[in-house]
Amino acid sequence: MTKADLIDEVSRLAELTRKDSEVIVETIFDSVVRSLRAGDKIEIRGFGSFRTRQRKPRVGRNPKTGERVDVPAKKIPFFKPSKELKDLVNEGAAAAPAAATPAAPTSSAPPTT
After folding, report:
1. Are 91 and 84 in contact (CB under 8 A)?
2. What residues does each domain of the chain span?
């Protein structure tokens, strides 16, 4: 799903104009970015949490020349999905293998000939 798809979905479900939906989606994304820049943690119950993690400085290599390159320390955004989101995503995956396997007989009576 792209950002445009998300805007269209919000517009359709909320019965808003596309422009109003775009403002809503942009506002949410801007709020998330502002909070992460400030070092805040964002927790959306039932969905997951966003936070930043600090990466240490390291020495990397230029893949073309093999030359050593100093990579500075930096903050990276990190998303941790909630248990509910994990369960919802895996719900369809768990049902598919069960449906693909043939069902075992449930009757305990011996087969008749």
Report:
1. no
2. 3-86
What burial class does residue 51 get, using C-beta atoms within 10 Å of its C-beta: 0-12 exposed, 13-18 middle, 19+ buried? middle
What are the strands, taking DSSP E only, across 1-113? Answer: 42-44, 48-55, 58-61, 68-71, 74-81
pLDDT of 10 strictly over 90:
yes
Q: Does the structure show a pLDDT above 90 at 102?
A: no
Distance CA 76, CA 37 (A): 10
Statement: 3-86 belongs to CATH 4.10.520.10: yes
DSSP H or E segment with residue 24: helix 18-37
- pTM comes to 0.67
